[in-house]
Amino acid sequence: MQNSYLAINASAGSGKTYSLVQRILMICLRYPKNQDNIRHILALTFTNKAANEMKERILTWLYHFSSKDYVNNNDLKAIQSSYKEEGLNISIEDLHQRSKSLLDYVLHHYSTLNIGTIDKFNSRLVRS
């Protein structure tokens, strides 16, 4: 997995959560054999509400990507298009299977989902 850092600074309602969720899922769905890649991702926000919304949205997207109607899911198609722009051709069916595996992993290892507040992250650093 490539080391890269992304900071999104934008006003309320501009789509920050959407962009972050899409990026997180793109990283995780890129490597189907490394489902635990999600534990290497750290997403920080200012409020507990925003952190919980991001976690909920990741699970919701994975649930919809894993459902029977995945072919018509615009978010999954957007991820596939982003991969194509990067030169990766991953079929929608393959993304569906990867999503099912990732959802299963996240549900069984929920504590590895490192999404929280800056304050909570700093508190953990100080304690350790």
Structure characterization notes:
There is one protein chain. The protein has 128 residues and is mostly helical. The protein has helices spanning 16-30, 48-66, 74-85, 92-108, 118-127; strands spanning 42-45, 114-117. A two-stranded parallel sheet has the order 1-2. Helix 1 (16-30) crosses helix 2, helix 1 packs across helix 3 and helix 2 (48-66) crosses helix 4. The longest helix is centred in the middle third of the chain and has 19 residues, at 48-66. The chain starts with 15 loop residues before the first helix and ends with a helix. The mean pLDDT is 89.
Largest β sheet strand count, sense and barrel closure: 2 strands, parallel
Low-confidence stretches: none
Cα-atom radius of gyration = 15 Å
* SS class: mainly alpha
What's the overall average pLDDT, rounded?
A: 89
The total of beta strands comes to 2
Helix content: 55-70%
* Cα end-to-end separation: 26 Å
Number of helices: 5
Proportion of residues in extended strands: 5-15%
Quaternary state of this entry equals single chain
**Strands in their spatial order, largest beta sheet:** 1-2
Shape: globular
Order of helices and strands: HEHHHEH
Q: Which properties best describe this structure?
A:
128 residues; mainly alpha; 5 helices; 57% helix; 6% strand; globular
Could you give a quick summary of the protein structure above?
It is built from five helices and two strands. With 128 residues, it is mainly α.
